[in-house]
Design brief:
Elements (H helix, E strand, L loop, with lengths): L1 H4 L5 H17 L17 E4 L2 E4 H14 L4 H17 L6 H4 L8 H20 L12 H31 L1
Antiparallel strand pairs: 1-2
Helix pairs in contact: 2-7, 3-7, 4-7, 6-7
């Protein structure tokens, strides 16, 4: 966070710092990125639509793409717009203030820990609650995960936007 606005670094270094920050803030909301069991689910074999994969990949890609309705620019833009509407005036409107209760760029480590703990709670509540090893996850498991997926993506986007705005204000 500090390097983004630190003019002692080159513009290239500051750009790299911002790219890392964007990636990190996106990743921290994915529950298995905050979990050490079986390398964050990478060593838990599962099935997705009959194909062998691992739990981490299912949470990173397959379930997100299914929830969004596919992949590609147009699909992701439409999905993002649905989440923006839910944040602005829908299901998440009453929650968004809590999502950014920790958004002071001077307390980046504390905020990161807070956000990681928030995502990790989902591992206990749903992701790892039942042993999913070698199970097909594209049916009822996906259906149960869907609210978590959407909420975590919405949180991540809202936090990222707030964080970048706060960085710009501090520059």
């Amino acid at each position: 966070t500090q390097r983004v606005n630190d003019r002692r670094f080159t513009l290239t270094n500051r750009k790299q710092a911002l790219e890392f920050l964007i990636h990190f803030l996106g990743d921290i909301t994915q529950p298995l990125h905050d979990e050490a069991i079986d390398l964050g689910g990478n060593q838990i074999p599962v099935l997705w639509e009959g194909e062998k994969t691992n739990l981490h990949a299912v949470w990173d890609t397959q379930m997100v793409e299914k929830d969004a309705g596919g992949y590609g620019s147009a699909v992701i833009t439409s999905f993002a717009n649905q989440l923006i509407t839910a944040i602005d005036s829908g299901a998440y409107a009453s929650q968004k203030a809590a999502w950014i209760s920790c958004s002071n760029v001077n307390t980046a480590s504390a905020c990161a820990l807070n956000w990681a703990q928030d995502a990790n709670r989902i591992n206990c509540a749903y992701v790892l609650k039942v042993d999913q090893a070698n199970q097909e996850l594209s049916g009822s498991y996906y259906t149960g995960a869907q609210p978590y997926i959407e909420a975590q993506i919405a949180k991540g986007g809202y936090r990222l936007g707030t964080w970048i705005n706060n960085l710009a204000a501090a520059a």
